[in-house]
Fold each of these.
Amino acid sequence: MSATERTLSIIKPDAVGCNEVGAILSKFEEAGLTILALKMQRLSKEQAEEFYDIHKEKPFFAEIVEFMTSGPVVIQVLEGENAIAKNREVMGATNPDEAAAGTIREEFGKSIGENAVHGSDGPETAEKEVAFFFKESELLERTR
């Protein structure tokens, strides 16, 4: 059963730094996802630590916080039928070497750590992550 969902997507500092934002956004739209909100910002250490809090006990936590604060990111809310699964399909496997041809990570990812994009992994996570970066009033439904 399909449902219209919202999910969070972040274009990470590696892809922003390589000027790949437009190409990545095009992939989301070509997959039938609608961008409801979009902004560029530089995450503070505190924001990155809070956002990735679920990983705080893992050995890569300090590394991901350092990486996500190393340059600007582009954060967007995507909407569409089964948007969470569709976004993850468009992103590809976490390891770019294992990502399917034509996926974002296969085309733009450099390593497991520098893999171009982040996407929510489920409905609860998506709701929490969207609210972390956007107020409800910032999510703009398409009227045309």
Note: The beta strands are 4-11, 34-41, 73-81, 117-119.
Amino acid sequence: MTQYVGAIDQGTTSTRFIVFGRRGEIISTAQKEHRQIFPRPGWVEHDAFEIWYNTQEVIESALTQAGLVPDDLAAVGITNQRETTLLWSRRTGRPLHHAIVWQDTRVGDRVAAYAREGGQDRFRARTGLPLATYFSALKLQWLLHEVPEARAMAEAGDALFGTMDAWLVWNLTGGATRGAHVTDVTNASRTQLMDLATLAWDDELLAAFDIPRACLPRIVPSSEVYGQASVPALKGVRVAGVLGDQQAALVGQTCLRPGEAKNTYGTGCFLLMNTGETAVPSTAGLITTVAYQLGNERAVYALEGSVAVAGALVQWLRDGLGLIRSSGEIEALAAAVTDNGDVYFVPAFSGLYAPHWKARARGVIAGLTAYANRGHLARAALEATAYQTRDVLAAMERDCGTALKELRVDGGMVVNQLLMQFQADILDVPVVRPRVTETTALGAAYAAGLAVGYWNGREDLVQNWQVDRRWEPAMDPQQRARLYGSWQKALDRSQDWVDT
């Protein structure tokens, strides 16, 4: 009896499998971290095989915890870290190189070269994206140029390109024997190779980036049956939904009407606003992206502001500085002081993303005096996420011409009440946390469940969404203006650190 829907949440630092019930409630969950590989400064890689093994392990663990078998699942959906780029052998299934992670900056010189020939926005009208190290096209170009035999294999169709969703679907549905080589429209929209209007790979873009079409996956809707799983843990279960992680959170938060927005606080921080069936071009430094496509329906678009470093800053304070022993300690340490001590932390570890797009920026800590202590650093680190969110929201309001009435939030950092209150204060907008905060995985489950009729339609999803906690702004307007003004000064000092 198919009572539940499963979701694989393949993130930047870990992979989870969550089983959901019809009300969107979590039945069981399992999670496992994978290594972060740093071959050189600015380079970030993942072992795709490690991620695949971890995926199988967490599926088995979550099902075992709940006493479930594959027949108990109506379908499984996938959500994934976006832009992370992989090439693997069609014949053996072996990656030709480690996956190049979305945060990686090794293609900075290529970004600069392309920008010199047509400006940073030369592809924005067609793709919704500026030239940046963030997106997949130049990462794939690097692999084709730098990995021996990669180009010849790709041109012959013997090497397959994909973001992590394509890698997982291919392995789940049979791998080298009969695996489906597909990617959904949301992930395809992040490669800088897909035309936003046609939802197809674009020949002119492929030529500009020197990418052979033979290595590309087929672009499919976000909610559709792509095949049946052949691995023992999910034997016979339909693989029926794929969404990039931030689009999945938008669906999981049921922001299904134009003007609704959510912010996900994870490794990075990503604010998306639903703009309906219209792809709204940004003039304020945001990304225009596909939000989702359900079956044969028309695609829905979103404006997105992407912040590279949010939870990753807390992780760095733990692993890089040893300031805390676990990420959960950050709130208590920050709460040990009453304010930030005039300390501001700009975590531009891989440059600044939206709305600034400054690849030459690097991280700075500004305002240090002998008065500053560990608590002030912790508080400044948390506040950095809130300030960056305000930068993005201000740009979004300029593009849309309307002010946000409330911000729905999710992700690992939303358990931090100090951060959520400060976020409401610095935005002067209520912040709302749903009862189920695993909205990224929930969105993938919704996409898969809709494809197989487990849920009847959008109204079923909207009825599932419930408020857990709401934070109202309470900061004095003058204090808000002073703090944000100081943040902007720190932001200015982070820019142009790296020489051309």
Note: The radius of gyration is 22 Å.
